[in-house]
Amino acid sequence: MKPGHLLLAILITAIWGFNFSVIKLGLATVDPFILAGIRFSLCALPAIFFIAKPNVAWRYIVGYGLVFGIGLWGVVNLGIKTGLSAGIASLVLQFSAFFTILLGSWVFKEALTKFQLIGIAIALGGLLSIIFISDGSVTMAGLAMVLFGAIAWSVANIINKKAQTTEVFAFLVWSSAFAPIPLFALDYAVNGSAGYVALANQLDLTAVLSILFQVYPNTLFAYWVWNSLLKKYPVSTVAPLSLLVPIFGMLGSVMIFNESLSYTKLLAMALIVLGLAVGLYGQRISNALFARPLRPVA
């Protein structure tokens, strides 16, 4: 990978990691479902008027929008709102990789490898470590919600794979249009008009910047660049850089919210990132290290 493209890929992982802290800043004055609803409204509008519908069945567009918008980000926002730190949320959400592997084995009949099973076991050790963090940065409700969000993300990945679209940006824009109304309706069902009254009275510059960051750098720009890099380079070159996301996520929480890094948190982060590395890339690394070169025939 060219140095410039490598730096661009690292920038994207930093944006995705810091986004969790940006979400938490926005949640100080905006309800979780409303924040997600505004985010996806701006992801869809006005772009949807200028970008043709992708050549994909409506069930995939609608399904992806609902699962990605509500099941993932609506629920993750709610989990962070309960008191879960941005850094821990970014770390736990990476379990979507393992849920995707497990769902893929069921939906697409893909066999699980020993490295995937070992990786899952290592990462579960990291998840158990999080339960013992007692500095107030972890809530059991928040942890459960972000894990639910990780499952939703894996379902969204399966929908995306079944859709088999090459028009990634158009798919993202059009699917985003189906998330806002259910998100706004959910907030009204739970909180009545209180969230909208607060939005009108308390919306400040921090919340506005939080929303804009989530829409443009984090969603539209980052996904477009990342998928462009995936088209230009082998997946094995680009994808491993995503392991940096939880590291940047934790770093962002430390810098913005002064979150303390205890030994338990460092252990949890090390185990989850190691588990991801083993589960996703262990077979590839093993093949590279132990593959024997073919000897020429005499």
Give structural notes:
This protein has 298 residues and is mainly α. It has one domain (3-279). The protein has 14 helices and no strands. It has helices spanning 3-26, 32-44, 58-81, 86-92, 96-107, 114-131, 140-163, 168-176, 180-191, 194-202, 205-232, 235-238, 244-257, 263-290. The relative contact order is 0.21. The model has no long low-confidence stretch (mean pLDDT 89).
- Biggest sheet descriptor: none
Low-confidence stretches: none
Radius of gyration: 20 Å
User: How many individual β-strands?
Assistant: 0
Give the helix/strand class. Answer: mainly alpha
Shape category:
globular
Task: Output the helix-strand order.
Answer: HHHHHHHHHHHHHH
Report the sheet-strand fraction: under 5%
Number of domains: 1
Termini separation comes to 37 Å
**Overall helicity:** over 70%
Mean pLDDT: 89
SS field, number of helical segments: 14
